[in-house]
Amino acid sequence: MTKTYPKASRPSLDNVSVSIEKGEFVFFIGPSGSGKSTIIKMLLHEVAPNKGRVVVNGKDVTSMRSWKRPHFRRSIGCVFQDFRLLPNRTAYENVAFALEVIGKTKAVARRVVPEVLELVGLGGKEHRYPHELSGGEQQRVAVARAFVNRPLILLADEPTGNLDPDTSIEIMRLLDRINRTGTTVVMVTHDSNIVNQMRRRVVEIESGRIVRDQARGVYG
Amino acid sequence: MRVKYVLSEVLVGLWRNVTMSIAMIITMAVSLTMLGASGLMYRQVDDMKDLYYKNIQVSIFMEQEVTEQQRTDLQTKLDGDPLVKEVIYVDKAQAYERFKSMYQDAPDLVNAVKPDQLPESFRLTLNNPEQYKSVYDQYKDTEGVEEIVDQSRLLDKIFNILTSIQNIALAAAIVMAIAALLLVANTIQVAAYSKRREVAVMKLVGASNWFIQAPFVLEAVVAGLIGSLLGLVALVAAKYLLFDGSLSALQGLLSPITWGDILFIFPVMAGVGGLVSAATAWITLRFYLRV
């Protein structure tokens, strides 16, 4: 697929074709502006390609109508570099909010949220506010929120970008654990340490083209 | 739970920016009051037109030295005129009686006037009061006719004044409505900005569009409905204080405004207030909350 943003001199993604199997763990690496984030945005149906197709969970979403997008998003969890938590809500409330706004009852939240917070290792810290948590703990809340709805795919856009190496490793262990439950994990990163340690599939992008696609790859 | 969530968001939203909410509600209330008042006046003027034009008369006054022949000719012509519904002949004596009763408070004036000095006249009721002009043209040059007076011309003046008051009220309603709409748009922008984090998360996790937008739209609708309630209160107060109070002397002149009229106009005000606010909020969200 190809994506050219208006006013851009060259396409952000140029004739890129990637296929990710269910249950895979894939790193997208490459310098800033190489087009990694555009891939994430296309998977989220935030932007559409100019040419080519985007197929997610076996469904062609290239020309999906925008009113269908909310329902589509429920099958994808998202984690970002800046956590994107609600500052005036506790860890528990942040996760429960994600359930409640898609129509789940409070009873469901009461059952599911403590479970998933336990899973990400935040048992006992449910009622802390984001500013009372460390960066790593905040990212755990974000992962819990992305995973609480049991999505088929977890997208992580530089989830360790704001964290120190040790904390980053912990977050990666968490993502690995989630991947083992059968969830496909797609992660965009700059972090060579992590890529080298994990030894998973690596897709390297440069100037909108795939220059490497390697199972059990390393960064450099 | 979702309904409860949406409603609590609405209240929180109105409270978060309470000065703006009050400004929005007040302008809305004034606008809707004007709208309601001009609506009431529209009915009022219609009622009055029916009432007055039905009883309207055209008077043909005769010259002092009109001859018997001229009078009989005119009478015959009027009787055969298809425009004329009814003809009443008023002779000098009857005119004097009327004059006396009309000016009974001024005996000096009555004493100064002799029955002889008052003109005889024909009082015509027309089939259609608006055809006055053709009646006038037809009889103005008839021998023995001094003057033709049409009451409807006086009424037209009164109704012109009422209609222009009504138009002014309507214009004020529109101007205030524009102010109210801008305030609604502004309130929604502020609300969308202060809730941008929540909205971003909601979009991310796949909350439906209506669920994201409903609190904002309902916030505007609630303000519109409160505004229309205040407008209703204002109209009720106006009826109490003005029509039943200081203007009650004009009771016989103005047809009365009933509670029924006000109750009839209220749903119109509430509907306009609610729908217009909802539409404005929704359109504003198109720009400030791309979902």
UniProtKB/TrEMBL annotation, chain A:
Report the Pfam families cross-referenced here: ABC_tran
Keyword presence, ATP-binding: yes
Keyword list (alphabetical) reads: ATP-binding, Cell cycle, Cell division, Cell membrane, Membrane, Nucleotide-binding
Occurrences of domain ABC transporter (ranges):
2-219
**Tell me, what is one Gene Ontology molecular-function annotation carried by this entry?**
transmembrane transporter activity
Protein's cellular compartments = Cell membrane
Q: Which GO terms are recorded in the biological process aspect for this UniProt protein? A: cell division
Q: How does it sit in the membrane?
A: Peripheral membrane protein
Q: Which InterPro entries match?
A: AAA+_ATPase (IPR003593), ABC_transporter-like_ATP-bd (IPR003439), ABC_transporter-like_CS (IPR017871), ABC_transpr_LolD-like (IPR015854), Cell_div_FtsE (IPR005286), P-loop_NTPase (IPR027417)
Q: Which GO terms describe its cellular component?
A: plasma membrane
Family the entry assigns:
Belongs to the ABC transporter superfamily.
Summary of subunit composition and partner proteins: Homodimer. Forms a membrane-associated complex with FtsX.
What this chain does, per the record? Part of the ABC transporter FtsEX involved in cellular division. Has ATPase activity.
Q: What is the protein name given in its UniProt record?
A: Cell division ATP-binding protein FtsE
Instruction: Give the gene symbol.
Output: ftsE
